[in-house]
UniProtKB/TrEMBL annotation:
Keywords: ATP-binding, Hydrolase, Ligase, Multifunctional enzyme, NADP, Nucleotide-binding, One-carbon metabolism, Oxidoreductase. InterPro entries: Aminoacid_DH-like_N_sf, Formate_THF_ligase, Formate_THF_ligase_CS, NAD(P)-bd_dom_sf, P-loop_NTPase, THF_DH/CycHdrlase, THF_DH/CycHdrlase_cat_dom, THF_DH/CycHdrlase_CS. HAMAP family: THF_DHG_CYH. This is FTHFS-domain-containing protein. One of its GO terms (molecular function) is ATP binding. Signal peptide: none annotated.
Length: 423
């Protein structure tokens, strides 16, 4: 019963969020839904997601654009949402109008916000043996949770997936394979399809043809997951149509040990898995804010100690974009100037205004020793010790040598020396 299991998942998510908010009031998982046009079926699915998100205590906002919006403008808005730290998941409601590339739109969503799991990185990781996708596509993930919650043992079983779409068929075959099932993917060109189905302990139908899989095709006691969503005429319904799956339910239910109904099977699980992915994304975001992993550049110590210029030439500076990522700066907060320098936008202060201020150490009024340990050397040494040795984020702010009458004495003005900072 997908409806009951999905309801239980929403309730657990709600409780989980409430408990985390008691510790951190800023913890507010947020989903942004992007819809282009006014397709009635898309609007129905969006309403379902908005309602489910509210029940799960997840902030969910709909951005709706006209049918004739250009692809470039839509991509601009997606990039805006990518750069908004208050948004943890972005879902583009498919399909989009024909003049817009579905691949371009789904690929534009940042990997860490791709809660639909359709981006190239997530699909690629899912397809790899031992891959680690950030998010698993919602419907395939829902199928697997449905099997697990229903007590179905997958390991060593023969599984047949009917359909090879990027949205359901292919991803669910990867998940079944990773769960140690022996998987066969069938499609419109498969010969003797009923023969393959007859050998299957688990059948996943996602072919898009109403009532396609017949009960007589099934092995006695097989588990059947019907992912199909097809509307057929029905004069008894107010809308004049009703929703059916890819499996002929009436005949299949006589043979299968377990079977998902349509509606009420996989559909509610898809939405529940979307909400689960949003919460996982929010967790990852807050975890990244709490921890930093800075990798110091390797310094090979030599005897005798080389000259400063020799040391500097043996080092290769870290790319400034990599350094920025290590200290928690987002790409939109950075304005690179070449490979090793950048300006940081002041909007980062707004993002971090809730954080406790760091400590400011002023190094001043030092008379250099005979070995040259002046203000610059001391400042850089402190930062090396704090960052490189203790793992604390620290920045050295060394002033420029003045251009006054003392310039050039002792290697620079007021102890400028010959030190070089390499990030």
């Amino acid at each position: 019963d997908g409806t009951a299991i999905a309801k239980s998942i929403r309730e657990r998510i709600n409780q989980e969020i409430t408990e985390k908010q008691a510790v951190n009031p800023r913890y507010k998982p947020s989903l942004k839904i992007v819809q282009v046009g006014d397709r009635s079926d898309s609007s129905t699915y969006v309403r379902m997601k908005l309602k489910a998100a509210t029940e799960a205590n997840i902030e969910c906002d709909l951005e709706k654009y006209p049918e004739d919006i250009s692809e470039s403008e839509l991509l601009y808005h997606i990039e805006r949402f990518n750069n908004d730290p208050s948004i943890h998941g972005i879902l583009v409601q498919l399909p989009v109008p024909k003049h817009i590339s579905e691949h371009a739109v789904t690929s534009a969503v940042a990997d860490e916000k791709d809660v639909d799991g359709f981006g190239v990185a997530n699909i690629g990781e899912l397809a790899k043996r031992g891959g680690k996708p950030l998010f698993t596509p919602c419907t395939p993930k829902g199928v697997m949770v449905l099997l697990s919650e229903s007590g179905v043992d997958i390991k060593g079983k023969n599984a047949v997936v009917i359909g090879r779409s990027d949205i359901v068929g292919s991803p669910v075959s990867y998940l079944l394979k990773n769960a140690d099932a022996t998987v066969t993917v069938c499609h419109s060109k498969t010969k003797d399809l009923p023969g393959y189905v007859k050998e299957a302990d688990i059948v996943v139908a996602a072919i898009g043809v109403p009532g396609f899989v017949k009960g007589e095709w099934l092995k006695e006691g097989a588990v059947v997951i019907d992912v199909g969503t097809n509307y057929i005429p029905d004069e008894t319904k107010k809308s004049g149509q009703r929703l059916v799956g890819d499996v002929d339910y009436e005949s299949a239910v006589q043979v299968a040990s377990q079977i998902t109904p349509v509606p009420g099977g996989v559909g509610p699980m898809t939405v529940a898995m979307l909400l689960r992915n949003v919460v996982d994304s929010a967790d990852s975001y807050f975890d990244r804010q709490k921890s930093r992993k800075i990798t110091p550049l390797h310094l090979k110590l030599e005897q005798p100690v080389p000259a400063d210029w020799e040391v500097s030439r043996k080092q290769h500076p870290k790319l400034i974009t990599k350094l920025a990522a290590e200290i928690g700066l987002s790409a939109h907060e950075l304005e690179p100037h070449g490979a090793y320098k950048a300006k940081v936008g002041l909007d980062v202060l707004k993002r971090l205004e809730h954080r406790k201020n760091g400590r400011y150490v002023l190094v001043a009024g030092i008379t250099p020793t005979p070995l040259g340990e002046g203000k610059s050397t001391t400042t850089i040494g402190l930062v090396q010790a704090l960052a490189g040795q203790l793992g604390r984020i620290a920045f050295a702010n060394v002033r420029q040598p003045s251009q006054g009458p003392t310039f050039g004495i002792k290697g620079g003005a007021a102890g400028g020396g010959y030190s070089q900072v390499i990030p």
